[in-house]
Amino acid sequence: MKKSRAVLAVGAVTLAALVGTLASAPTAAAATSLCGSSYGYVGKHALTKVSGRGGPRTGGYVYVYYNAKTKKNCAITKPVPELRGNAWGLGVGLHSPTYKDGESDGYARGQVYARWAGPVYVKSPHACVTVTGDLNMGMPGRLRAHYEVVKRGVHCD
Q1: What pLDDT digit, counting tens, does each position of 84-141 carry?
Q2: Residue 73 buriedness (CB in 10 A; 0-12 / 13-18 / 19+)
Q3: Could you give the C-alpha distances from 7 to 10, 18, 106, 120, in angstroms and in order?
Q4: Partners of 76 in the β-ladder
Q5: Phi first, then psi: what are they for 95, rounded to 5°?
Q6: Distances (CA, A) of 27 to 33, 87, 121
Q7: How many other CB atoms are there within 10 angstroms of residue 11's CB atom?
Q8: Beta bridge partner(s), residue 106
């Protein structure tokens, strides 16, 4: 009897760890699939509130991925779960100052994204990139808060 309780306890702990891992995986997994399966996670940058009232301090993240074979970076902006359904105007950008190349998404007329912005790509072997992103909280025409991030000279390989 004691042995079976110990096995059940170990099984419960293992199951709890697996559920915790899966609960945090969808954002990274979804972003990876948007970039492509050959892209590996590099890091994320928080979009912090720069104006407005209400909502969380961090409104979302710019997720950055890298493909070693193609030497390309990929980025996607996604809101935090708390803002899903209440975020709009998502934007993302990647720029390589060394190679004077870059892409952005979500900033052109008619691009009013609510779920994610991107993916955007830039080839930047052995050089740093600049990562940008932003989003709004509230409804279009009723802005409650604005979030953004600009990180220069990051993800150098």
Answers
A1: 999 999 999 999 999 999 999 999 998 999 999 999 999 999 899 999 999 999 987 7
A2: buried
A3: 5, 16, 51, 47
A4: 63
A5: -140, 140
A6: 10, 16, 19
A7: 10
A8: none
